[in-house]
Design goal:
- By secondary structure, this protein is an alpha+beta fold.
- The protein is built from six helices and three strands, in the order αβββααααα.
- The chain has helices spanning about 10-15, 65-75, 80-85, 90-95, 100-110, 110-120; strands at about 30-35, 40-50, 50-60.
- It has a three-stranded antiparallel β-sheet with strand order 1-2-3, with helices on one face.
- The mean pLDDT is about 90.
Length: about 130
């Protein structure tokens, strides 16, 4: 397996992520899927004050979608909500440590998008 897609850290996050699971009482949650490849992600977060205490996810899909979600969860636990909302696609790719094709980019950003959506208030008056 010379393909960087399957490097050890990525496989560890895919097979045995400590962030996989559900929270008893999440403050925020979101479900997203990628209809083009079938990847699915469910994220849950607990927030105290302005700090993210816990991030958990569940889902199914390719190594990239699941490992990237785990890496983002690892990065965001303990961060402020503002820091989480400022995290961008380039940051997610950097966490993965490998370039992604346009098709793989959708997989790699699925969990990040779910977390962004979960943390973004939907009841904002316009």
């Amino acid at each position: 397996m010379d393909d960087p897609l399957y490097r050890e850290e990525i496989l560890d996050h895919y097979y045995s992520s400590p962030y996989r699971g559900r929270l008893d009482r999440p403050d925020h949650a979101c479900d997203l899927d990628n209809p083009f490849c079938g990847d699915q992600i469910h994220v849950e977060l607990t927030v105290e004050g302005d700090r993210i205490q816990e991030v958990r996810f569940d889902g199914k899909g390719c190594v990239i979608s699941q490992a990237a979600t785990s890496l983002v969860a690892e990065r965001l636990e303990g961060a402020t909500v503002q820091e989480a909302l400022q995290l961008g696609p380039a940051d997610v790719v950097k966490l993965l440590g490998m370039p992604l094709t346009p098709t793989r980019m959708k997989c790699g950003l699925l969990g990040w998008k779910a977390i962004q959506k979960a943390l973004t208030p939907t009841d904002v008056a316009v």
